[in-house]
């Protein structure tokens, strides 16, 4: 168990902290200390230097969670879709060098924004909501709450508002000083991915096969653009024929790239298990969605979650916490941005 804990700890550790640990391990080995103290040190080090905690702002900004919750609920009331959009932004943030708010940075002389990466361009949205919430937090607690943490809290509160599960959001992330459009183009999973692509993509982030199937269930809310599902409805054979033809009426073979369709045709603004039920009848909107129920090892998980929403909710809460722990900047790494769109 100790070795397993240490392995998980290493995956969630920042690059700087990993370097420090390796240095200390080398020193301990050089004086012939045993392996067990090394593992104990690894656990203690992360508790001090790389640990995220639900109570991180309890003293420095006790009203932080309520400010974010009020902000996202107000935003969803103004535009129902925006909560799903920001859940996706949190996902795309974490898959590019960790959950560090890099996706929020605008273009500058030194920064190529991830907003213009292929998976995000004309697609990622809701940034004005983050700006609004950040401004309120800066008035209440100047320079305390990071943009990366705001995204993590918004994701939870949006899911809850749509009727989904809740979870304790671990906090204490800091914001990156830069962004990487090139990395975003490589590491964010694409709608044309097959099961092997999806599996290896999530594994590269330290997430399991089960995490991949569970987190895909976030597609129970939100929309996709025609350009992202056109190939699936015209070229794939694992799609219900009537469903495909109905989508072809508005998503033509050319043009209409920005025509939107709900990812979940049954309950587009309710966080439930209908996404998996759609897959069972070959009505997944994206090629990558239907790959989860296509005569492969993901089938049993899809069937389980389609039959039992409670099991899906419990699994989703655990998996999104793991995703939120991908390579956070902590301690003195990065900064707390005053404006989420640019470094201080």
Shape: globular
Rg of Cα set: 21 Å
The secondary-structure class comes to: mainly alpha
Count of β-strands? 2
What share of the residues does DSSP label as strand, in percent?
under 5%
Query: Could you give the order of strands across the largest sheet?
Result: 1-2
Helix content bin: 40-55%
Give, in order, the helices and strands: HHHHHHHHHHEHHEHHHH
Which stretches are poorly predicted, pLDDT < 50 over at least 5 residues?
1-9, 38-49
Number of helices: 16
Instruction: Tell me about the largest β-sheet.
Output: 2 strands, antiparallel
For the termini, the CA-CA separation is 42 Å
- What is the residue-mean pLDDT, rounded to a whole number? 90
Give a brief description.
With 344 residues, the chain is mainly α.
Descriptive overview:
By secondary structure, the protein is mainly alpha-helical. Helices cover 51% and strands 2% of the residues. The chain contains 16 helices and two strands. It has a two-stranded antiparallel sheet with strand order 1-2. α1 packs across α3, α2 packs antiparallel against α3 and α4 runs antiparallel to α6. The radius of gyration is 21 Å and the shape is globular. It starts with a helix and ends in a 20-residue tail after the last helix. 43% of the residues are buried.
Topology:
Elements: H1 2-11, H2 15-30, H3 35-49, H4 64-78, H5 82-94, H6 127-140, H7 147-161, H8 181-187, H9 195-203, H10 209-216, E1 223-225, H11 226-235, H12 241-248, E2 260-262, H13 274-280, H14 287-290, H15 299-307, H16 309-324
Antiparallel strand pairs: 1-2
């Amino acid at each position: 168990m100790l070795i397993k804990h240490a392995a998980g700890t290493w995956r969630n550790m920042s690059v700087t902290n990993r370097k420090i640990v390796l240095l200390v391990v080398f020193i301990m080995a050089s004086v012939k200390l045993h392996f067990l103290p090394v593992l104990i040190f690894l656990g203690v080090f992360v508790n001090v230097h790389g640990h995220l905690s639900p109570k991180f702002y309890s003293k420095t900004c006790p009203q932080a969670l309520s400010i974010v919750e009020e902000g996202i609920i107000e935003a969803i009331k103004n535009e129902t879709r925006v909560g799903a959009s920001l859940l996706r932004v949190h996902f795309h943030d974490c898959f590019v060098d960790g959950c560090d708010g890099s996706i929020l940075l605008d273009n500058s002389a030194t920064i190529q924004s991830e907003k213009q990466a292929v998976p995000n361009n004309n697609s990622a949205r809701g940034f004005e909501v983050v700006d609004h919430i950040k401004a309120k937090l800066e008035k209440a607690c100047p320079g305390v709450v990071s943009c990366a943490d705001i995204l993590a809290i918004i994701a939870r509160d949006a899911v809850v508002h749509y009727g989904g599960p809740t979870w304790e959001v671990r906090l204490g992330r800091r914001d990156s000083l830069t962004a990487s459009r090139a990395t975003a183009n490589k590491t964010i999973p694409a709608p044309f991915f097959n099961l092997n692509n999806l599996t290896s993509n999530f594994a590269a982030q330290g997430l399991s096969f089960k995490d991949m199937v569970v987190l895909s269930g976030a597609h129970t809310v939100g929309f996709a653009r025609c350009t992202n599902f056109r190939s699936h409805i015209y070229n794939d054979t694992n799609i219900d024929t009537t469903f495909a033809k109905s989508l072809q009426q508005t998503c033509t073979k050319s043009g209409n790239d920005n025509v939107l369709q709900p990812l979940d045709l049954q309950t587009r603004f309710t966080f439930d298990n209908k996404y998996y039920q759609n897959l069972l009848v070959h009505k997944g909107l994206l090629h990558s969605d239907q790959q989860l129920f296509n005569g492969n090892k993901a089938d049993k998980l899809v069937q389980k979650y389609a039959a039992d929403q409670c099991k899906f909710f419990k699994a989703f809460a655990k998996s999104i916490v793991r995703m939120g722990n991908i390579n956070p900047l902590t301690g003195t790494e990065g900064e707390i941005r005053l404006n989420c769109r640019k470094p201080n």
